[in-house]
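Q: How would the structure tokens look for this protein?
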Amino acid sequence: TRAASRRPFGRLQILPWVIAVSALAWSLSMRLEMASYNHELVARQVAIVEGRATTPRGHPSAGHDCEPCPRCVQGSMASELKAIDATPDPRAVTFVLVATMNANNGPRVAALLASVQKYVEKDRSAVHTLLAVVPDAELRWWELAASALGDQPAFKIGVLAESAALRSGVEALKRAAPKTGRRETRGLGYRFQMLLKLGVAEHVPTDFYVTFDCDVVLARPLHLGDLVRKDENGALKGVTQGSMGGPHAHRWLSSSLDSFFGTTPGSAQQKGGVNGAHDCRVSNLMHTVGVTPAVMSKHGAIATLKRLEQRAEEEGKRGWDEYLFSALEDGLDWTEYGLYAAGTCLDGSFNRHHVVDPKVRLYDAALQEDGSKFMDPKVMNEAFGPNPFVVVQSIGGSDATSVADALYSHLGNSAVEATR
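A: Here is the predicted structure in token form.
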């Protein structure tokens, strides 16, 4: 057995991240504590529905129609982060991680956090807040993990309950799309994540945010101006991927555009929404945003949700999210980025919020679409450097253990040597 090298403690910068991920990974084994907490959550929700409870601010709650209070580490609520002065530099962004804890995601979170630790500059940080959006039942575990990270000099850390980012409750959404839940191989959790990446907009403290899944890592040092720029007039603009690739992109965008006009395929064409004042044809939407990770305007996302909320009222639905789930039942295969692209096109705000630079890509689309390529060292070496992010998707064929091996040479800390 080789003894682990002993380096000065100050050099072990990765240790807090390892501790955090260990706390997350072991959360599944702590069933007794979690069962007790789940019981507490259920009891509280029942009390709210029956009118026997109030929110911490003293406002009566009426179940799903009233937004539950999210919680945040460091003694403040996540929803209050937006009230804090974001940063001396408005180009800083919020990293939004939509995640749930399972055997596949835990190790991937370790890689993501290691990349943030390595590539986010401590001075003049391009990141203001790292905000994790998680299931309500996992909230305390993620809070513990965030606490284990300690005080970060480069950015704030927040944890937000999923229910705070949705207009309707999770169970109501499931009831709105029973056929879809049976039809989709990945279940409705995949769709919930899409909704959360839009719904979180009201909770981010910066003008722009970047959406993350657990299979995204930073690929190089991140500087102010890489993700959000100022144009010649001083206006802030988020940098986009500039294209949405893959064999399903046309269907996703077409369905997303239709969602603003009805719940069935072809609604936009039938109601004259395609060739309007801003020419929102799918062929044009294809050259706007990509997929995760994406730089999104908080104001653009909120405006998109307001437009969908109006549509929901016309259809007699409780909220924008329930409306979208009901549209799944009628055959609309929308996505969060399709909705964002269509919504910001319809109100003419996309070019006001974003810039498409043909010289810049946020990630390697070929690697993102084919997870099997991550095992090729040449491909990985080429992926780390030119683009800000690398995506190693589990649905593309990667597994967590192999991904860790492939990423270690790029993200590992030389101050930490394992005992073998």
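The longest helix spans residues 31-49.

The longest strand covers residues 127-134.

Upvote if useful.
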